[in-house]
Design a protein that fits this description.
420 residues; OB fold (Dihydrolipoamide Acetyltransferase, E2P); 7-stranded mixed sheet; 23% strand
Length: 420
Amino acid sequence: MIVDIKVPSPGESVTEVTIGKILVQNGETVAIDQIICELESDKATLEVAAEVEGVITLFVKEGDDIAAGAVIGTINTDAAAAVKPATAMPDKSTTPAVVVNTNADEQESSYAEGHPSPAALKLMQENNIAPGAIKGSGAGGRITKQDVLLYLENRKNKQQTPVAPTPETSAKETLPQTIPAANNPGSNRTDRREKMTRLRKTISQRLVAAKNNTAMLTTFNEVDLTEVMALRAKYKEVFEKKHGIGLGFMSFFSKASAIALQEFPAVNAYIVEDAIEYHNYVDISIAVSTPKGLVVPVIRNVQNLDLKEIELAVKDLAVKGRDGLLTMEDMTGGTFTITNGGVFGSLLSTPILNPPQSAILGMHKIQERPMVVNGQIIARPMMYLALSYDHRIIDGKEAVSFLVRIKELLEDPMKLFLNL
């Protein structure tokens, strides 16, 4: 029986995906639920798994753009059944202990010859080993993980073997290099062009649209984090021991933002055509940097969460983003965004809105600076805050007051717990 492999629906409004990493080879036998390939949509990476066991044939290659619901390959379940007896253990009651295949042509044409097992394929891809570089020792000539490990060991030994220098190379090493590499016609100057991933293309389109379609403005303030850092220093070990998660800064900023957003509902609202849509909940999008680009998964109902629950949610989304496991549900929604450029050393920036949201808070690097406190110059851990907002819906007074409210809550963090 031939079973079609179809592109699953990535979610509402997503009609096309890009074929990402392909994890199997044509002619390979796949097991039920084995991952065949990854699909890159506008918001997240999806996985396609085998629904049945059989020999796979794919019609696509990495980088192809495919419509949702399209057939990208087939699985032949009859072929899988046909090869099973060849790999099954012989019945000891009717066959000798050793079975020798005397038909060399049948052995050479085995479906498995030259094809790596899933574990071997992963190891080969990680070490950039060409498919034909290794001769398989497994059943039917299949390349096993042990074959790949042996190949890597032999390659390592060859690389470590010293090569005696020839007179020609010795002379070259002693000649002074007087020509700068940049001006040397023989220097290796190359250009490389790669196709944009679907995620990167979507990010670029959304950022340009946000800049062109909103009346975006940024207001700044600075916050003294002395009290927050003192709280963290005092309770960090106890917090981690009890809850199994570190006490970071994101939970303080998220909680302060949730309180301020409920006091200034326009900052938590959308413009929908010619109306303003207000929300009585706070769903905060957290900007997460991943190998494939910046994504903004959502922590929901932050107004009801405590610091522990926020920290656990942030960690969960960060790990999912790093491992490419974010789902469409993780990425959908959000009424406000927080981005932390400070983890990369940014001292000041103007974040861009995340439509349809009306505001985004930018955190930055904590840096000790001299501040005047009660007439005395004291070194204080300071952070610049930036609030970019859509001036069509949020007035300057609201934006400044919102940012000042966050500053007040962070400089006296007991207000976060006492709801003051």
